[in-house]
Amino acid sequence: MPAAEVFSYGEVLDQVRSLRWPARTPVSAVLPGRHLSHRHGTSAEFTEYRPYRQGDPPQKIDWKVFARTDRAYIRLSNDHAVLPTAFVVDASASMAFPAGSNDKYARACRLAVGLASIAHNSGDPVGVVVTSGAGTSTFPPRSRSGVVREIARTLGTTAPAGTVSISDALVTAARFAQRVIVISDMLGDLEATLTVARAQRARASELYAVHVVGAGELDPPRLALVEDPEDAAVRRTLSDASHAEYLREFAAWREAVASSWRAAGVAYHESVTGRPLLTDLRRVVARPR
Fold it and tell me: What is the mean pLDDT of residues 237-252?
């Protein structure tokens, strides 16, 4: 089903208004912004002293230090830059579980809009790549006012369907963003996506994976008939024995997914439908200890 209308995100946007999303490491972008940059420049924020070398501008010499030490040092400071941010949102058929307005896709949309608002409030351009079996919609990062609403509208015009290639969407997003967040139930081309993620991490990109899990997937009712949403021929009734087996295997699979993303150097988070959204948003944007 399509995502909820744009106005339904009002509560989410109010909750995140005061949150900010600091970069995890100095960024290499050249446009001025709020994040610490690798580039030395004219910022008033002092970084360190360096001995004066021939060719350095004399006006950068700290004359007070020279008077104390009789040696010439220059003050270095780091510029600040923006961090273009893009969200890869999975709109495959499996994201439509459970049927209704509280499915995994609706959760993914709220996560993307909430995180986009936090990044935009932090001064960063934001965009989205949403992919479904019907096609892929790409909205490159923008800084203009109203961009979060445009992202919400892009998500809202997409309905979960078919199978998708998250790896291809990740490649697309990484072309125009230094911070990329994959929001998916991880039931698609996970290995191919991890391969792309490892390559992007080698380029020092900032990557996140948000694993959306349906509350009903954690403990489905016994004797329920379960069906693969992307292959209706795959069906199974959960007896008492198979229910216990399912719980063990699903828990092991979730742990394997988490371990795989973290081993690839990606910040991994799980988000379960029906649980407080703000808690998940805070965890994603928190600076690592």
Answer: 82
Q: Which residues contact 31 (CB under 8 A, 6 or more apart)?
A: 81, 82
Shared domain for 59 and 190, answered yes or no, is no
Whether 1 is covered by a domain: the verdict is: no
User: Percent of the chain having pLDDT more than 90?
Assistant: 58
Whether 53 and 137 share a structural domain = no
What is the arrangement of strands in the sheet containing 73-81, beginning at the earlier edge strand?
32-40, 73-81, 46-51
Residue among 200, 176, 185, 210 nearest 264 (CA):
200
Tokens of 28: 């290499």
The 10 Å Cβ neighbour count of residue 225 is: 9
Is residue 210 a part of any domain in this protein?
Answer: yes
Among 104, 155, 158, 113, CA closest to 135: 158
* Same domain assignment for residues 88 and 55: no
| CATH code of 107's domain | 3.40.50.410
Grade residue 233 by pLDDT with cuts at 50, 70 and 90: low
95 with 76, same domain: the answer is no
List of residues 6+ apart from 102 with CB closer than 8 A: 273, 274
> Does any domain span residue 288?
no
* Distance (Å, whole) CA 121 – CA 100: 31
CA atoms within 13 A on the CB side of 188: 29
Cα–Cα distance for residue pair 140/208, rounded to 1 Å = 18
Q: What is the DSSP letter of 60?
A: G
What pLDDT band is residue 142 in, cutting at 50, 70 and 90? very high
Question: For residue 262, what are its two tokens?
Answer: 């973290």
What range defines the domain where residue 50 resides?
Answer: 32-81
User: Could you tell me if 92 and 218 lie in one domain?
Assistant: yes
